[in-house]
Design a protein that fits this description.
- By secondary structure, the protein is α+β, with helices and mostly antiparallel strands.
- It folds into two domains: 1-44, no CATH class; 46-136, 2-Layer Sandwich (GMP Synthetase, Chain A, domain 3), CATH 3.30.300.20.
- 35% of the residues lie in helices and 29% in strands.
- It is built from four helices and five strands, in the order E-E-E-H-H-E-E-H-H.
- It has helices at 34-38, 46-68, 105-118, 120-124; strands spanning 5-10, 17-22, 30-33, 75-85, 88-99.
- The strands form two sheets. A three-stranded antiparallel beta sheet has the order 1-2-3.
- It is elongated and about 55 Å long.
- The two termini are 28 Å apart.
């Protein structure tokens, strides 16, 4: 399975702007720029998209881990905050609130720790990066 997105950037790093499009069509030409990344006006940023991906991936992985342990969650609500400092992503902080019938706090904590370590997005945050680059 492969998933794709396209980013088009025009102009310099600080004054330029870009647009993001998902191949699924759910996001089409959503703007991003230095301002949306560091000053918080309308638009998105790579960090916001990473936070959404991490929260979603973690929640799904936790559901699988809980199922393997014999529990089915009624709901899992996860937020993720990505911190960028000095041009480097320095932290991804997950907060999850679960409604899981019959589970103890200790078992839930252990399952959440497993999901935190093993969801695909957690793993990719520290991985080898490959690239293809070309000019038109």
């Amino acid at each position: 399975m492969k998933r794709s997105a396209t980013a088009v950037w025009k102009g310099s790093g600080k004054e330029g702007s870009g647009a993001l499009t998902l191949d699924s069509g759910l996001m089409k030409e959503v703007s991003y720029s230095w301002r949306t990344r560091f000053q918080d006006p309308e638009g998105t940023s790579p960090e916001e998209l990473l936070a959404a991906a991490h929260a979603a991936c973690f929640s799904m992985k936790l559901s699988f881990v809980l199922g393997h342990a014999g529990f089915t969650p009624n709901s899992l609500q996860t937020s993720c905050t990505i911190t960028i400092e000095n041009g480097v992503i320095s932290n991804a902080h997950l907060v999850v609130v679960g409604e899981v019938p019959g589970i103890s706090a200790e078992v839930f904590q252990n399952c959440a720790e497993d999901a935190k370590q093993n969801c695909p997005v957690s793993k990719v945050l520290n991985t080898n990066i490959t690239m293809e680059a070309r000019l038109t």
